[in-house]
Write a structure and sequence with these properties.
- This protein is an alpha/beta fold and about 500 residues long.
- The protein contains 15 helices and 23 strands.
- The radius of gyration is 24 Å and the shape is globular.
- Bound molecules: nicotinamide-adenine-dinucleotide.
């Protein structure tokens, strides 16, 4: 019998939704059923929005430093439960334990950062042009915020959204990905234990089609914060446009690491392996392309392939495992399909991997070999489209300008990296790369929560997660003028 997990709406836990239930299985061992979850639909979304809307009125009156104290307690509880949640997360989505611990740690960091924002939430005070008049701007809550999240960072991404939304005084409707509802349940339990008012936070697991659509069409949802694929994000933007909801979108990537001929090659190799195969290549910031200066391309490729071929694949709960499975069968098939496309297209060479692993210890999971293509051209689909798996396309260039031009030649603009010892190269890259994040001598993965996170071009729509920039997503500015002259003073007209 699978463990039964519950949804949480309007202050009540329940184990069956209006669309029934769904099972969540371990991608490293599909006989291991992580749990059975309520599948929610319009009924639960309507109740969740009504509850969040009502509770938000009181929450908005709680002084922000007091809201911050609750977030601080949530951070402390996540510290206590870090190992338990990390193990559950590995079971439900496959990435290795050190990474799931890191995922929870990101939630802890966000809790503490946003807790302290409760004592800032800075606005401006400005001089007014007329005498005896005062001007300032303050942040106001948005109202009901709906979070639609992906499976690859089941704790970090919901915390990036929910903690800033709470500190800004909003009510929450949270729809996690169907591959990672267990981590979402643990997170909501932590929020409640920390003191978030029960009716303020609502958890509605279920499909994108059912729950997602009901959220997008609900007139009382003021903001939708979405992280996921560009395809779904585009549709969400359209829907939100129709009803003029604010909508924050963090979407796909096709990130690249440049390695120049003056780079520390050992450092660049370690970075490339971590960036490409960490989370089995399923990070939005994963290194999907390696852009190598021609002088070092052969030697770098040889060593990269040698080391990638030694990566230990297996169940993420085993400490010796370096790369877990991909998240589900569909993702395994997508990766295999891209390998087929790579092989059929214009003379790319498959020099490592390329196969789903299905035998022996891998027979009950969705494993895929670390895969490398060389002789990849910019025009090929494997150089342009997000694959979201352990596949790297290697491109070779003659100089820095061509490297940056190649890096920019994609519809996406999330993360980017350059390895060079030349400070001039580094600063040109910082200036000319079109991406929300540029790393110098660091792989394309590894963001810290005190800086803004997000992408340009088709990766995002101008909003950012993390840092203080995220507060602009979850609050409305109000400008306030106080005239204490006791008479009508007309701006731009009177002296
Ligand atoms: P996805 O787009 O399939 O799903 C994301 C969420 O949207 C899930 O909760 C899903 O149930 C929901 N959804 C699906 N269809 C919907 C619909 N019609 N209406 C409303 N909601 C719907 O993405 P995924 O497979 O979960 O995640 C992988 C993608 O996420 C990749 O493209 C990756 O790059 C992206 N991602 C981006 C970032 C970032 O910050 N830019 C971070 C992590 C992941």
């Amino acid at each position: 019998m699978a463990e039964k997990f519950k949804a949480f709406v309007a202050g009540e836990w329940f184990d069956k939704g209006s669309a029934g239930t769904f099972l969540n299985i371990n991608p490293a061992d599909y006989d291991d059923v992580v749990g059975e979850f309520p599948s929610c639909g319009k009924e639960e979304v309507d109740a969740a929005v009504a509850s969040a809307k009502e509770a938000q009125k009181k929450w908005a009156l709680v002084p922000a430093p007091k809201r911050g104290e609750i977030l601080k307690r949530a951070g402390d509880l996540l510290v206590q439960k870090k190992e338990e949640i990390a193990r559950l997360m590995t079971r439900e989505m496959g990435k290795i334990l050190i990474e799931t611990r890191g995922d929870v740690q990101e939630g802890i960091d966000t809790a503490y950062y946003m807790a302290s924002e409760g004592r800032r939430l800075f606005g401006d005070t400005v001089p007014c042009e007329l005498m005896n008049k005062f001007g300032m701007s303050i942040r106001c809550p948005m109202g009901v915020c709906a979070m639609i999240t992906p499976w690859n960072f089941p704790m970090a991404i919901p915390t990036w959204k929910i903690f800033p939304a709470l500190i800004c005084g909003n009510g929450i409707v949270f729809k996690p990905a169907t591959d990672t509802p267990a981590t979402a349940v643990k997170f909501v339990e932590v929020l409640l234990e920390a003191g978030v008012p029960p009716r303020l936070i609502n958890l509605v697991p279920g499909s994108g089609r059912n729950v997602g659509t009901s959220i997008l069409e609900h007139p009382n949802v003021n903001l939708v914060s979405f992280t996921g694929s560009t395809q779904v994000g585009r549709m969400i933007a359209k829907k939100c446009g129709e009803s003029l909801k604010r909508c924050s979108l963090e979407m796909g990537g096709k990130n690249a690491q440049i390695v120049m001929d003056d780079a520390d090659l050992e450092l660049a190799l370690e970075g490339a392996l971590w960036g490409a195969y960490g989370t089995t290549g399923q990070r939005c910031t994963a290194t999907s392309r390696l852009i190598l200066h021609k002088k070092i391309a052969d030697v770098f490729t040889k060593q990269f392939v040698e080391r990638a071929s030694k990566i230990r694949i297996g169940n993420g709960l085993d400490d010796k495992t370096q790369m877990g499975p991909v998240v589900n069968k569909e993702q395994q098939d997508v990766v295999a399909e891209y390998v087929r496309i790579g092989l059929e297209e214009d003379k790319a060479d498959l020099i490592l991997g390329g196969r789903a692993l299905k035998e022996g210890e891998y027979s009950k999971g969705f494993f895929f070999q670390p895969t490398v293509f060389t002789n990849v051209k910019r025009t090929m689909r494997i150089a342009r489209e997000e694959i979201f798996g352990p596949v790297v396309s290697i491109l070779t260039v003659d100089n820095l300008d061509e490297a940056i031009d190649t890096l920019n030649d994609t519809e996406y603009g999330l993360s980017s990296s350059i390895y060079t010892r030349d400070v001039n190269n580094a600063f040109k890259a910082i200036r000319d790369i079109q991406a929300g994040i540029t790393y110098i001598n660091v792989p394309t993965i590894g963001a810290e929560i005190q800086l803004p996170f997000g992408g340009v071009k088709n990766t995002g729509n101008g909003h950012r997660e993390s840092g203080h920039a995220v507060l602009d997503t979850y609050s409305e500015w109000k400008s306030v003028y106080v005239d204490y002259s006791g008479r009508l003073q007309r701006a731009q007209i009177d002296d």
